[in-house]
């Protein structure tokens, strides 16, 4: 029979009493988030383990395989407070907590990217007045990032809009937060536009700027409309350009921007699009009417992208989905066969707290 070991836990917060050879991390990655938060008070060593980026990745790879979650950030204009909700679909558990954001400007923070490797980035699109926040729901830590330094000359010349993406360099195993700063710049010959690429390292807490010439060659004359998300392995983060004709992808290892044309030309006055990163290294594109005229014509067209590049030969048309009664738009993706849609009235106006999960293959809608 094997020898028994007595495990002595700390009795006060900060007590660092541990047992030799006790497999802390191997056991902890099996527990849900709400239990891990309590474990942080056991000892300093447990707190350090749970707070580390490597643990967040291991926890998501293990526990997250069975318990996929969907992050929703909501701003209450009455209380002027934020609420971050994580819907744990594997366990039907809803985790809510209140981030301690300080409202220092009239326009609230309004964008969110992630979750990726335990991190969620919450940011404002206007770099001059809005901050960037990295949030780790696993240990409930919130970090407000320092702004990337911009010279006085730049701040005068720039009319800019910020968009963020998260990813992982598979060679260095480094998590990267990428900022695409779309700008208009006035020069002698007129007004030009482009995108500046900045990279933040959570491990060193420092910013650096991608070479101007390399970024300009790949992004000019684009202007970012919105962030799409990252591949599951974090190898690339993606954005949609303002013309709805290009996907801009940032390769985390090579640190280059790749342009991929959309498979069809979108008339923005009639159609809208939504693109989601799937679990594998592919993107799902949904095209849907801007306004719902009748119940019968509200259909989603679904395309899949399995490669990147100018040739645009990697898109495949998959199917039409619907019609769905009262669906206003897709708002998220779960797994490879489920999307989350917002339910609205006949004019597409959203109903409060009305989101549904749609199983694409079965055309089945369930409340979440």
Q: Please, could you describe this protein's structure?
A:
With 368 residues, the chain is mainly beta. The chain has a domain at 264-368. Helices cover 12% and strands 45% of the residues. The protein has helices spanning 24-28, 33-39, 44-51, 53-62, 152-157, 212-219, and strands at residues 69-76, 81-88, 93-97, 111-116, 119-123, 132-136, 141-144, 158-169, 174-187, 190-201, 206-209, 224-230, 236-241, 246-251, 256-261, 271-277, 283-289, 300-305, 315-321, 327-334, 338-344, 350-359, 364-367. A 4-stranded antiparallel sheet has the order 4-5-6-7, with no helix packed on it. The chain has a 4-stranded antiparallel sheet with strand order 8-9-10-11. The chain has a 4-stranded antiparallel sheet with strand order 12-13-14-15, covered by helices on one side. Strand 1 (69-76) and strand 2 (81-88) form a beta hairpin. The longest helix has 10 residues, at 53-62. The radius of gyration is 22 Å and the shape is globular.
Short description:
The protein has a domain at 264-368.
Rounded to the nearest angstrom, the distance between the terminal CA atoms is 49 Å
Number of helices, where a helix is a run of at least 4 consecutive DSSP H or I residues: 6
| Biggest sheet overview | 4 strands, antiparallel
State the helical fraction: 10-25%
In terms of DSSP E residues, the strand content is: 35-45%
Strand-helix topology:
Blueprint: H1 24-28, H2 33-39, H3 44-51, H4 53-62, E1 69-76, E2 81-88, E3 93-97, E4 111-116, E5 119-123, E6 132-136, E7 141-144, H5 152-157, E8 158-169, E9 174-187, E10 190-201, E11 206-209, H6 212-219, E12 224-230, E13 236-241, E14 246-251, E15 256-261, E16 271-277, E17 283-289, E18 300-305, E19 315-321, E20 327-334, E21 338-344, E22 350-359, E23 364-367
Antiparallel strand pairs: 1-2, 2-3, 4-5, 5-6, 6-7, 8-9, 9-10, 10-11, 12-13, 13-14, 14-15, 16-17, 17-18, 18-19, 20-21, 21-22, 22-23
């Amino acid at each position: 029979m094997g020898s028994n070991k007595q495990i002595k836990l700390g009795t006060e917060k900060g007590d660092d009493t541990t047992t030799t050879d006790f497999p802390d991390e191997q056991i902890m990655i099996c527990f849900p988030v709400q239990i891990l938060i309590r474990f942080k008070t056991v000892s300093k060593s447990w707190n350090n383990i749970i707070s580390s980026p490597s643990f967040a990745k291991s926890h998501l790879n293990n526990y997250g395989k069975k318990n996929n979650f969907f992050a929703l950030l909501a701003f209450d204009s009455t209380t002027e407070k934020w609420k971050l909700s994580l819907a744990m679909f594997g366990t039907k558990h809803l985790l809510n907590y209140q981030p301690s954001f300080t409202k220092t400007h009239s326009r609230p923070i309004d964008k969110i990217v992630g979750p990726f490797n335990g991190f969620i980035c919450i940011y404002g699109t206007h770099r001059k007045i809005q901050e960037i926040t990295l949030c780790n729901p696993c240990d409930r830590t919130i970090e407000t990032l320092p702004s990337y330094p911009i010279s006085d000359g730049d701040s005068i010349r720039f009319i800019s809009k910020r968009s963020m993406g998260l990813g992982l360099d598979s060679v260095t195993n480094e998590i990267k937060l990428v900022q695409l700063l779309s700008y208009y710049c006035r020069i002698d010959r007129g007004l030009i536009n482009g995108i500046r690429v900045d990279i933040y390292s959570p491990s060193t807490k420092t910013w650096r700027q991608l070479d101007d010439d390399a970024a300009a060659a790949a992004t000019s004359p684009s202007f970012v409309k919105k962030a799409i998300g990252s591949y599951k392995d974090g190898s690339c983060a993606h954005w949609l350009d303002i013309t709805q004709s290009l996907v801009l992808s940032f390769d985390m290892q090579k640190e280059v921007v790749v342009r991929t044309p959309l498979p069809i030309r979108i008339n923005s006055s009639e159609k809208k699009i939504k693109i989601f990163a799937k679990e594998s290294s592919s993107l799902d594109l949904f095209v849907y009417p801007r306004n719902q005229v009748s119940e019968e014509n509200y259909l989603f067209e679904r395309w899949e992208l399995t490669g990147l590049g100018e040739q645009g030969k990697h898109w495949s048309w998959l199917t039409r989905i619907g019609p769905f009664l009262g669906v206003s738009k897709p708002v998220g993706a779960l797994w490879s066969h489920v999307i989350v849609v917002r339910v609205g009235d006949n004019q597409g106006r959203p109903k409060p707290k009305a989101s549904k999960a749609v199983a694409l293959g079965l055309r089945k809608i369930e409340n979440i």
